[in-house]
């Protein structure tokens, strides 16, 4: 799973968003059968720290520590998953965390 996390100073305009979506869609097409799923998360939400500490302060797209979305890919191993993540054009805009999914 590739987890996309925000970075400070990212352009959040509608035009920039459309450009990044197009880049991502084109990259997914290149992945072919290795692409399993991708989802962009809503800009709103709630951040739970513990039972007593709840933060509701969206829009989260502007916060660097917030997960913006994810893509699930099929890779033989972590090395291949990292290689594929490095080919993702969204790496120019966001941090990508690569995590194996337990099956």
Helix and strand sequence = EHEEEEHE
Can you give the helix content as a percent range? 25-40%
Number of domains: 1
Largest sheet: 4 strands, antiparallel
- Provide the structure class: alpha+beta
CATH topology: Alpha-Beta Plaits
Shape: globular
Describe the strand arrangement of the main beta sheet, using strand numbers. 2-5-1-6
CATH architecture: 2-Layer Sandwich
Strand content: 15-25%
Number of helices: 2
Strand elements, count: 6
CATH class: Alpha Beta
Radius of gyration: 15 Å
How far from one another are the termini?
Answer: 12 Å
Features:
single chain; 103 residues; alpha+beta; Alpha-Beta Plaits; 4-stranded antiparallel sheet; two-stranded antiparallel ribbon; 2 helices; 6 strands; globular
Write the layout of secondary structure elements.
Layout: E1 2-5, H1 14-31, E2 35-40, E3 47-48, E4 54-55, E5 67-73, H2 78-86, E6 95-98
Antiparallel strand pairs: 1-5, 1-6, 2-5, 3-4
């Amino acid at each position: 799973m590739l987890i996309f996390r925000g970075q400070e100073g990212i352009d959040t305009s509608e035009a920039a968003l459309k450009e990044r979506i197009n880049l991502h869609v084109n990259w997914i097409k290149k992945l072919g059968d290795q692409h399993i799923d991708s989802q962009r998360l809503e800009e709103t939400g709630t951040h739970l720290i513990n039972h007593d500490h709840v933060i509701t302060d969206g829009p989260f797209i502007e916060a660097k520590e917030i997960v913006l979305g994810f893509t699930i890919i099929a890779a033989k191993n972590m090395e291949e998953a990292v290689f594929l993540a490095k080919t993702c054009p969204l790496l120019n805009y966001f941090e990508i965390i690569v995590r194996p999914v337990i099956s």
